[in-house]
Structure formats: structure tokens, C-alpha cells
Amino acid sequence: MKRTTVLxxxxxxxxxxxxxxxxxxxxxxxxxxxxxxxxxxxxxxLDYPDTKKVDHVDNYHGKQVADPYRWLETHTDEVDxxxxxxxxxxxxxxxxxxxxxxxxxxxxxxxxYPKYGAPFKEGGKYYFYKNDGLQNQSVLYVQETLExxxxxxxxxxxLSSDGTVALSAFSFSKDGKHVAVGTSSGGSDWNTYQVMDVxxxxxLDDKLEWVKFSGxxxxxxxxxxxxxxxxxxxxxxxxxxxxxxxxxxxIGTPQSQDKLVYEDKAHALRNFYGQTTDDERFLILNAxxxxxxxxxxxxxxxADPKSTIKPIVNNFESEYNVVDNFGDKLLVxxxxxxxxxxxxxxxxxxxxxxxxxxxxxxxANVMQSxxxxxxxxIASYMKDATSQVVVYDQNGKQLNTVxxxxxxxxxxxxxxxxxxxxxxxxxxxxxxxxxYRYDVANNKVSLFRKTEVNVDTDAFETKQxxxxxxxxxxxxxxxVHKKGLKLDGTNPTYLYAYGGFNISMTPSFSIANMLxxxxxGVYAMPNLRGGGEYGEDWHKAGMTPNKQNVFDDFIGAAxxxxxQKYTSSERLAVAGGSNGGLLVGAFMTQRPELxxxxxxxxxxxxxxxxxxFTIGWAWVPEYGTSDDAAQFExxxxxxxxxxxxxxxxYPATLVKTADHDDRVVPAHSFKFISELQAxxxxxxxxxxxxxxxxxxxxxxxxxxxxxxxADTYAFIYKNMGVNPYEGEAQNK
Length: 732
Prior knowledge:
Elements: E1 5-6, H1 36-42, E2 57-60, E3 63-66, H2 77-95, H3 100-111, E4 115-116, E5 120-122, E6 125-131, E7 139-143, E8 151-154, E9 165-172, E10 178-185, E11 191-197, E12 203-211, E13 217-219, E14 222-227, E15 245-250, E16 259-262, E17 271-276, E18 282-288, E19 295-301, E20 310-313, E21 320-326, E22 329-334, E23 342-346, E24 357-360, E25 366-373, E26 376-383, E27 386-392, E28 398-401, E29 409-412, E30 421-428, E31 431-439, E32 444-449, E33 460-468, E34 474-482, E35 493-496, H4 513-518, E36 522-526, H5 536-540, H6 547-563, E37 572-577, H7 579-590, E38 597-601, H8 620-623, H9 629-638, E39 652-658, H10 667-679, E40 686-691, H11 702-720
């Protein structure tokens, strides 16, 4: 399919914005058992801001449910004042941790290294993204050949003084003369599209607003894109998004003249994403009713002026992803009757499944992505959450496998059928992203660009274990730590997971994780049910009504780490973002004694009302909805907001969100922390950290990211009674 770089993940929840560490100083954390005195000094009683309660009660199928903080769902001056007051308490607490500045300094030091993206080719030239080290946004460079001097092509850092305007989409026309540029402000999912003249670098007058969950897909002298109608009233960052439409924009014309290509007036809660094939023969429309993967598929034969949009698959039972077209046939990756995916060839004029031709059948491993380059089909697979790459000819005959350095994760392999080379990036927990060139015809892999970091990554080791969850299911988990780690139950441990939306958590390098690891910490990442690591069956095992399996898997991971003496409950921090924020919220309300620190970020905390805001309705297939009596009962059992109990001592909690998050609106976090501060037993701090001019996580400036990690680590260490820079308990 035509290359469209969409830098903001669309369509629902993502695993962004969760704390994933960096490197730190060479000083090691003191792993001696924390004394009672040290634990006592970590306890604190804070004077939280007064949060008013309103007398609001909802009736859910005969059950009365109070919602005293409903007013925090609005965007008013009163809410802004509440945010300011909460941030002041949080920043005063964090500012009183004397080693926070040391953490930030080390993070800044090790963050400052060049970060490259893999090259890609457009209009006969090579392009790549690069961040010099501490730039807020990565810069797009261009070079005539791989050996010529790169030149800056587009620098999003010039779009704002504080780095909060980010590049969200970038798509070249087929002739390479124009590029559609998408930007987002303050972390919002709302995008603005413009058109740049490649030769001059100047923006044309074209300006498209209210674009969301889209990518520009070129056809002739314009492109297809998706948007909503402009909000007419209320809060544009919280209002429910309805009636997604597909338009065609012709270069040089105002948005008001864009041609409406497709809409569905009968179904307000469907999203439509348009893509053109590389040869611009077909327009493919992906229609979704939720964010869990299943979609319908429509097409238009652009070679026939009289053609209309017709269905290929007109239900939402399985997932279909058009990879390419071979003439008048479409190459489609699908999990229809293949939970681990297969590759089929479909004639859109005869779309019935009986007419499909299997090109690559389902295998024991999960097919994760497919590309077509140089007359080959390149398929990336997952085996126990690590990558394998297999190359086929266009008839599905296996030709070879691509040699990878070790167990880890690959991405890339983009390009066109005419290309003789492609590039991919390999990474793992202790393997910084490294770019390789792949000679397609000769199956040769060569190092293209190695990443150099200011950390001894050879000092750490990664292992994969399989532990038993509550119902007997075996769940894999990666554990990373210093070589020679003593299993004495005293190691500070950071347990991070996601568990939902068919999203797979695979090994990847985080410079922030290095800080945790070099100070003697353990980083653990389990592959919970609800993810895609073992295909659709694994995903469905963590969807409604089976969502509790995900929480049980996470609890099981914590118990394993404690039982195997990697850590103890006094030295365990649990973290997750978005759907992972829900995970942490459920964990801490179901097993509050199991961890010392809880870090729910941009989480879905009110499971009874999530579908009322922005794109929240798209998560109903994953979670269920309180509008249904049986699903309400299930949601009510684990909804973090509704399961905080009076007088229970919960883990030290730092809730993280952002005022411009229009994916998971911050009201979830606002209401959760208000309930926690009102009901939680004293002793541990219950704080919220609200980023200003930031969103769900994508596009966040480097400066804000570093500060967030510094605050997060300082909070963890203080509440574990550990000073990473003095090797003794923090007694401040």
C-alpha cells in the first residue's frame, strides 16, 4: 500500500504514555532490606486540595450508583483551578525529594544521543528521521543517495516554541512532487493537514481542519482523508466523535470544496479509513465499529470512472488488512478462520470466501505484518512475543528467512515492488535500535547504522519465564536486570504491562529503562491475555466478559516476582498506560497489599461512562458497555473508580494524565484520584500529575518526557525507602 507515515496511533487505546525507564548513574541502588524506620519515614500525610462533591446518582438497570465528581468531566475555570491546586501539591511533594534533580540530570545525559529512523525512498530520494539527542521533535532529512550529505527537509521543532506541535502524518504523492503534512497541537488527536511543495519546501495554501484517525492517501493530484464535522458547541477535547466521513482533497482548492467520498448516516459510531494501492488502481475503505481489530472492507476501482464503492466484507467479525494488489486482485492479511492470521488473494468482483486463494496459510506463529518489496512477500511473525521474518515469492513459496541478531523485535521492510533493497530496525530490551539494510534478491543483511548510547548495555541480561495465572494459564514474562543479580527479595522492581486491544508487547529498547537497570532495578514485562502475542484467541481471552483474566495475569506476575525473590511487596512498583492504566487501577483496588507503588497513566478508570466521550465508544467491543445489564454487572466489578473502599491503605499512587488528552479524557484520572484521596487510608501519598499542553502520549516533547520520568522515578524511590545516589534509605 502507498506509504503514509501516521505517527499518531489511531482508533482507540494505545500503550503510550506509560513509564518506561532510561539509564542512570553508575551508582547502584542499595539492595539491603529496608528497615522499619526507613519505611516509616516514607509514609506521609498530605493536605490534599478540597474537592467538592455533588449529589448526582445514576440508575443502572435498577442499581443506584453515585457519581459525586461528575463536575470534573467538564472543562471550566473551576476544573482548571482544581488541576492547578492538585499540581501544586504534587510538585511540592516531588520537589522535596532531594535526589530528583540527580535523576533528571542523569536522564538528560544519557538521553542525549543521536536517534535515527530507517531510510525510506520517495521520488528517487532517501528520507529519514533523526533526533540529535534532546530535540523535542525528530527532524525529517533528505539525501540524494545513501552516501550524500543529508539536508533538513522538515523540522517540526520550528512549529512551536515549546515543542508541543508535533508531526502526526507525512505522505508523499506518487511523483514525489508534493507531500501532505499532518500536525497536532498539545498532544490532541485532532490533526491539521497542509500540502508542501517538495522542490521549494514551501507550504501551499491548502489547509484541512478537524482531521482525526486518518492518513492522507494520494490519488493523482490530491488525496483521500477522513474527518469529523467541526464541533459546534461544548468541549472539542471531550465531545463524543460521531459520523466519520471520507473526503477527497484536490491540491490548490479550499477544504470547503473537498468531495465527500463516503459516509454512513445510519451508523454514527463507525470509523472509515481510506487507502490507495501503490499503483493507485484501488481505493480501499476500512470500516470499524470498535478498536479491537475487526473491520469491514470496501473498495472502489479507480481505473473505472463509473465504479462505485462496493463491499468485499460487510460484517465486523474478523480483521482484514489489504497489503497490496497483484493486478486486479487484492493481497489481504486476515484472521478469518485463522486466529494467528493468514495471507489470501481476493478478487474484489468475486469476494465470497469460497473464491479466496490462500497464498500463505496460518502457521504455529502469529503473522504480525506483511509487506511486498522487490517481487517478494516479507512476513514478520511472533513466536513467544519475539520476531521472526520469513520471505516468500508472490505465490506463497517460502524462499528463506531473514537472519536477526538475537531475540527481539523488528519493524520496517517498507518499499515498493520495484525496490531492490529495504531497511529494517531491530531492537530489544538491551539492544538499542539498530538499522539494517536488506538486499531482497540475494537475502543479504548488512549493518546500516548502529546506535551508540552512553550505557554499558552488556551489563544486563534478559530472560523469559512462563508463570501460572489464577486459572492455570501459562503466561510469558520478560525479566531484565544486571548480570549476577541476587534473588534476595530486596530488588526494586518495575512491573509494566498492557493486556488489551490485540496489542502485542514485544522487547524494545528504552533509554529511560536503563536508569532503572543501572541502579540495580529489575524491569519485568508480562504478555497478558487481551494482547495479540498468541493471536485472536489470546486476545479474546482478555476481552469482555473475560477481562478479569487480564488482571489475574498481572497479579500472577507480581506474585511470581515476589515468590521467586526478585523483589518484595515493599519494593514493587506496578505501571501501565491507557488500557494499562485501567490494568493498574484494577490491580491496586483488588490487591492493594501486593505493591508499594502504583502508576496508572492516562487510564480508563470509569468503566461505566468511558463510552460517553470522544472515541470511547470504540472500546465497547473490548470492554462491554454499562448500557447492557449483564455487561454493566461485569464492568462494575472491576471499574477502578467504583471499587475504591473506605479506609483501605492503597499503594503510594501517582496518577498521570494530561489536559489535552482527547483519547482517554483526563476526567477518568480526575475522578479516580478524588475518590482515592477521599477514601484511601492515610500513610501513602495519593497524587495526580497533570501535564499541561500534552495529550495521550504521542508527540510529547522530549523535555516533558524527561521531566515525567524524573518525577516518576523520584516518587518510586522515595516510597520504596531507597536513595539511588547515596545507597541508603531516604530519610527526608
